[in-house]
Amino acid sequence: MKQLVIMPGGFHPFHAGHAALYQSAVQAFPGADVYVAATNDTSTRPFPFAIKEKLAKLAGVAPNHFIQVKSPFRAEEIVNRFDPNNTQLIFVRSEKDANKPPQGGGTKKDGSLSYLQPLGNDAQPLTQHAYMAYLPTVEFGPGMTSATEIRAAWPNLNEKRKTALVMSLYPATQKNPKLAVNVVKMLDTAMSVVDESVLGNQGVAEASDRMQRYGQLILKRARAARDAEPESKKQPPPPALNSISTRDLMQQLKKPKNKNVAAAPDYMEENIKKL
Fold it and tell me: Are 36 and 19 in contact (CB under 8 A)?
């Protein structure tokens, strides 16, 4: 039976953590068709589908696998492409969302199993059931795990720190300063109005502080990668964040508790050319 794996979500914005989850799904279900389902709804969040799609391509989602849908957990625009009698439908989410609805399990009023069930060994076609699977949450950037933290920190950052954050969210931009600037502009456009109450004042300050400390590390890695390249391929170095020495700031850095840091997929550069 064919496996169809769908990663539903809001993606405001799509970032390195989402990219890591997508790659984990590709690895966890070899041979499956893996898609990302997103809406164009901006009623409660700032990112339209067009920007989500560009950021997803930048982060490494395969071409034509980031699909606009009306309802991410129905994703009929994707599901209807497959034979319902010979396709197992699996939704994947991050472990941090395991307690958020919808959840697999439960029964109907007549005692039969609900349509959405936890993924197990009893594989049924999508005419009978869909399944929910959870994959490890990956920490990215300055200890972030969600798009909410990005949106909360963004309004408090200057241009140089925004660039540093973009480099951590989309590693391919570390070797392409012009691309990083374009992504900053894209995020500025989408987040021109952000509700900072999503984290509260303390949460906003903490997220911003983590980003500022991590920014120096990102820029140091970018310069190191550039210095290792042949002279003919080198791009102009990214700007310094401020007058404080990198050495002093690096002494303040703490290693992230979670060692699972998202890496850029090998084929990311090819996707970037299509933006």
Answer: no
